[in-house]
Known about the structure:
Blueprint: H1 3-30, H2 41-46, E1 52-53, E2 56-57, H3 58-74, H4 79-107, H5 112-134, H6 151-157
Helix pairs in contact: 1-3, 1-5, 3-4, 4-5
Amino acid sequence: MSARTLRITLVVLTVIGLGIASYLTYIHYAGIKPVCTAGGSCAKVQTSVYSKLAGVPVALIGLIGYIAILGSLLAREGETSRFATMAFTLVGFGFSAYLTYRELFTIHAVCEWCAASAVIMTVLMCLSIWRFLRGDAPAAGSLPAGAAPGAESRARLGSAS
Length: 161
């Protein structure tokens, strides 16, 4: 998979996660029940004591997290932005894993919206780790001004300048 395709895939998944988190944040503040096919499980999860962290809805925390991931993906391609994406998705995965644990073993109900977000975050984490470890060279023409002649081709080949 090319670096461009991988980045686009990450952006698309993040936008989907952003949509889910936006919906869950909206229903929280609107005080309405989420659309759910699991017979009220979503409402049970959304109104549980675990639906807030220090008084802040976890849906809003997720929304902020997806915004941070999207920001890191839209930033100029480089090791720092790839690391930021990886770090944000690792934290998001850990938070999602904790919340999924609470759903399964404490609340005894599974919110399908939350589960979808957890799956998306898991895929985002795996892809962002892969993207970071690949360490793709910058795209052609994106080297800083004044770079040595031939530096672009050496960067693509992965050799030192």
